[in-house]
Amino acid sequence: MEKKGVALVLGAGPGLGGAVAKRFAKEGYEVCMTRRYAERLDDLAAEIRAAGGVCHPMGVDARKEEDVVEMFAKIENEIGPLEVVVFNIGANIRFNIVETTSRKYFKVWEMASFAGFLAGREAAKYMKERGRGTILFTGATASVRGKEGFSAFAGAKHALRALSESMARELGPQGIHVAHIIVDGMIDTPWARENFGEIIKTLPEDGILDPDDIAENYIFLHNQPRSAWTFEMDVRPWCEKW
Q1: Which residue, 95, 163, 166, 232, is most buried by CB atoms nearer than 10 A?
Q2: Contact indicator for 82, 126 with CB cutoff of 8 Å
Q3: Judging by DSSP bridges, how do beta strands 6-10 and 30-35 pair with one another?
Q4: Residue 11: how many other CB atoms lie within 10 Å
């Protein structure tokens, strides 16, 4: 398999993040992938390696500036130049507004927005020197529409989208592709099956977002020619209301 450089996926959980990590590994990238606790990546790492890919599981708290700076430096100095960085950390938690404490709101913002800023900034530092690279941010329906019970999540996701757009305008002329992907709908994950299994049974065929299918769009965005870059892409099942 031809090696194409290094891809970093922050938030490589058992759903979309893991699917994106596997897809970039299949494409020939040496994949660095993070969760807060590295041991939670053991199964994903084993799957990637069994398929012939190369990966580096990392336990990182993406909200901690020192940890993020150190991680990027380690990857660049010890593994290789980052060609693509995917920020996929979510914080989709529902709270009635009067039950949303300042601590809850801040924590959601910290995970879904501030951590994205740290990752995007560090990625830009290295990519600017080479005049190339791709930075992809995972958004959600809440990135463009606030819904009852999701004040914290919508606030954080709106902020992440604004960050993405500002970075795209600044870094595009410097050869760096920044894109924001709005994932509109339920993703088929073990958590979704456990918590919404009865609802999922009522959906038509292909009525729920398949993580592997979404991951194809991340590869597509990364491989786009720079004469026709996409800033924002939204994906949803064919039957999803929007």
Answers
A1: 163
A2: yes
A3: parallel
A4: 27
Helix (H) or strand (E) holding 68: helix 65-74
Cβ atoms of 12 and 44 closer than 8 Å: yes
Residue type, 8: L
35 backbone dihedrals φ, ψ, rounded to 5°: -140, 175
Would you say the C-alpha torsion 20, 22, 25, 30 has a positive or negative sign?
positive
Q: At which residue do the structure tokens 């993406």 appear? A: 62
Residue 154 near residue 110, CB atoms below 8 Å: no
Helices 211-223 and 16-26, axial angle in degrees (round to 10): 50
Tally the residues of the chain: 242
DSSP secondary structure letters along 186-234? -B--HHHHHHHHHHHHTSPTT-SB-HHHHHHHHHHHHH--GGG--SEEE
Distance, first Cα to last Cα, the chain: 40
d(CA 1, CA 81): 18
Q: Which domains does the chain have, with CATH numbers?
A: 6-235 (3.40.50.720)
Walk along the chain (242 residues) and give the pLDDT tens digit of each residue.
Answer: 566 899 999 999 999 999 999 999 999 999 999 999 999 999 999 999 999 999 999 999 999 999 999 999 999 999 999 999 999 998 777 888 888 899 999 999 999 999 999 999 999 999 999 999 999 999 999 898 888 878 889 999 999 999 999 999 999 999 999 999 999 988 988 878 888 888 888 899 999 999 999 999 999 999 999 999 999 999 999 998 88
Please tell me the distance from the alpha carbon of residue 66 to that of residue 221, in angstroms, as a whole number.
30
pTM above 0.90, yes or no: yes
Q: What is the number of H-type helices and E-type strands within the chain?
A: 8, 7
